[in-house]
UniProtKB/TrEMBL annotation, chains A, B:
GO MF assignments: DNA-binding transcription factor activity; transcription cis-regulatory region binding
Calcium listed as a keyword: no
Keyword DNA-binding recorded: yes
Highest taxon of source: Bacteria
Keyword terms, alphabetized: DNA-binding, Transcription, Transcription regulation
PROSITE patterns noted in UniProt: HTH_LACI_2 (PS50932)
Protein name: Substrate-binding domain-containing protein
Domain HTH lacI-type: 12-66
Length: 352, 352
DNA sequence: ATTATAAATGTAAGCGCTTACACTGACGAG
DNA sequence: CTCGTCAGTGTAAGCGCTTACATTTATAAT
């Protein structure tokens, strides 16, 4: 009795499908990629064979031959935090709608790790890359250019960056919020920021606050800023530190909502009421901002819109449709309850 | 004047490196993959060429030839929610430490999307897959088996599942929490659960509550359960609904922290104090649970440990080291402030 | 019917890498 | 001095797919 050679336990290949359908591999390939270049009857036969064999194209082989992966990579600073979650979810949905798959990896806010991940994704054939912000060394942009992998920056807007961006003006947004704080009578203002090194969003937000201070003729040198990593507990600690000063601030602006929630927590521990004793503001308007109490006055960022637009723009770049795609999205101040008039001020501008 | 053929603008290949170093492609390949099989002097020369050319191996080609990708795929129900974030972060870190890359995609809690993503990741050559829970149709497991792609389930433990799991006993954990609730005098108990269809974690948690009820000789039929998707606002709405009953519950157990925070929010809107008027509990112990007020009494799940162990177990499976790796992790009840004695009960068992 | 033209399909050459196998030369044993 | 051994390299055969080009077949115009 002969061994049954055809007992094919391995995963079927294009060749198997072709043989089964009685056509050439080219035809099978066309059925899968350009169905309209194959006559109906043949296509039906091929598709049947595909189904019968449960054929799935080998991705690596396809990539190698076609030099396209329909894969977009995204490298975000962290997954362990909701800041990027919503925008990324929208980004993925939009990609999916256009037939692309998203690969996500995180850099832990470390430039060297980010670079490694960029190379890994490019090596894996990502057709395009979504990066957060603009802060990175020139060589990596050159690398991307050499590899001809288009990249787009999000969560930050820069008119003439090395790569186009879909984002918002962190500086102007923070400035607007700070002006509101100042309008409410606050003069002693402090800030808890994320680490600004290698993070243009954080840096721009700081600058925005300074802009507002200057515009109101307040002394920028008086501004105390504590930089810390994005964790609730760190926000609490920084806040405690700030309030231990001889002349503690009456308003603490935070670089993001996570830090602001931490500050809130710090205030609670110190027995301070927000906003009666001290005002706190956030940035990003993640869900957390709404459900914490008091609910955070913060800068609303259109995360979902940003994700969606970034996806469309990036795919356009990948498919070579358009060139310049940068877009500046509008942010707004979301007034909730963590910001109030400066204590000791007689006149609340909103209730004169 | 002849065109300068050697002006190679394209990305360098193994061949280019080999030529530059004056060796064969096999040697270059060996330098990269089995450095000790090449003599020092040659290796140095090759490495120099690699550096000079800024050579990066073509991933697809490597995969195709070697049939290994050093890539692990993970499919989680959603990224738009912190439940999986921490565990996944730990998972990625552990993978990275062992030289693997993580590819994440999300299924939006939809079985059909999950299946699509599984196939996509397998096609992309994932060496192994991390899946959440055990609820999926048999054919997909057969597919995985046929493709010889090992998979591991996390966030759920099942002794004899189709695939091994690194998780915890959702049922026992919820039962333990419910017993605590009952011990505090609560008799009218309700639950807000995630959609249990296709979600074994949600289902097990419901069963756990029922177990506790039965053990305390309470009528399971009296238990009202509202199922809704994991969003804060849905938790609030479900809570409001529950409290509008003729005989509202005195304790509302939630399928997870997000829903519990929503319930809390609902209570606030209704003017109910937690836990004086009504008790609320969560599940998962994500950061949110600690910072919401009142801080949530919830089930603590060792997310980071789970992620780490899952990574190690999965890699062991991929590398064929071990076979059975299932592990049941311990959970604990995290007592905070959202659970109190039943109102109207004279005796608080903790302060008799 | 005949031929020009277009549509459908087949042929086969890679894509860039790994690896089985072949080869070379140095070394120690006999 | 010869031969077997073996470490270090080279040769070349794929891996499974896409696609330019060649070939065949259908369609339309004469």
């Amino acid at each position: 009795m002969k061994a049954d050679i055809s007992k094919d336990d391995a995963t079927p290949t294009l060749d198997d499908v072709a043989r089964k359908a009685g056509v050439s591999t080219a035809t099978v390939s066309r059925c899968l990629n350009n169905p309209d270049r194959v006559v109906e009857a043949t296509r039906a036969r091929v598709m049947e064979a595909v189904k019968a064999l449960e054929y799935t194209p080998n991705f690596a082989a396809r990539v190698m031959a076609a030099k396209r992966t329909f894969t977009i990579g995204a490298i975000i600073p962290t997954m362990d935090n909701a800041i990027f979650a919503r925008g990324l979810q929208a980004f993925q949905e939009a990609l999916h709608a256009r037939g692309y798959t998203l690969l996500v990896s995180s850099s832990a806010y470390r430039p060297d790790v980010e670079e490694e991940q960029i190379r890994a994704l490019v090596a894996r054939g990502a057709d395009g890359l979504l990066l957060i912000g603009h802060d990175r060394d020139a060589p990596i942009y050159e690398y991307l250019e050499r590899q001809k992998v288009p990249a787009l920056a999000a969560w930050s807007f820069m008119e003439d960056g090395q790569i186009p961006s879909i984002g918002f003006d962190n500086r102007a947004a923070m400035s607007a919020l700070a002006k509101e704080v100042i309008r409410l009578g606050h003069r002693r203002i402090a800030m808890i920021s994320g680490i600004s090194q290698g993070n243009d969003r954080a840096r721009e937000r700081i600058e925005g606050l300074k802009d507002a201070l200057r515009e109101s003729a307040l002394d920028v040198d008086d501004l105390e800023i504590i930089e810390t990593t994005y964790e609730v507990e760190n926000g609490a600690e920084a806040f405690t530190q700030l309030m231990s000063r001889d002349v503690p601030p009456t308003a603490v602006l935070c670089g993001n909502d996570v830090l602001a929630v931490g500050a809130s927590l710090g205030a609670k521990r110190l027995g301070l009421r927000v906003p009666q004793d001290v005002s706190i503001t956030g940035f990003d308007d993640i869900e957390l901002a709404r459900i914490t109490s008091p609910a955070l006055t913060t800068v609303h960022v259109p995360h979902r819109e940003m994700g969606r637009k970034a996806a469309d723009a990036l795919i356009d770049m990948v498919e070579g449709k358009k060139k310049v795609v940068s877009a500046k999205l509008e942010t707004s101040i979301k007034k909730r309850h963590s910001l109030g008039p400066c204590p000791g001020t007689n006149d609340d501008p909103d209730h004169p």
